[in-house]
Amino acid sequence: MIFDDNPHASIRILRTRMPYAPFDMRPWSPAVNVFETEQAMLLVIELAGVEPSNVQIEAHPQFVRIAGVRQIALPHDLRRLHRMEIASGAFQIEVPFDRPIDPDRTTARFNTGLLEIWLPFAGRGARQVVVHIKQEGES
């Protein structure tokens, strides 16, 4: 049973005067697909509604860190929030690698809400770099 078999247990619902209740303020994690080819790792990260300028990518030989912010504006005359499933605010993910990658040759592009990061495997020891994200139409 849900309440440790206590038939008198109940859930207390409090009323609030705010037009909406604050939600979980922890960073959210976008969905990530990780693929390995003969030459590289490919990450595809779902970032609909995130501006490329709000994303930072740090490529290290053993992992990549992606951080950023998705900002969703609420209507100025909001009376009540009925449903909120789209996460917003800060996010950060780290993806470790079994084989070292070459941060200097890492590339990224943003296309229709998906961030694609190509991380070629290293031939020798590599260093950490910050990766520029290309936007749709940019070569």
Automatic annotation (TrEMBL):
Record's keyword terms, sorted: Stress response
Domain SHSP: 23-136
Entry-linked Gene3D superfamilies: 2.60.40.790
CDD domains: ACD_sHsps-like
Family designation: Belongs to the small heat shock protein (HSP20) family.
Protein name according to UniProt: Molecular chaperone (Small heat shock protein)-like protein
Organism encoding this protein: Roseiflexus castenholzii (strain DSM 13941 / HLO8)
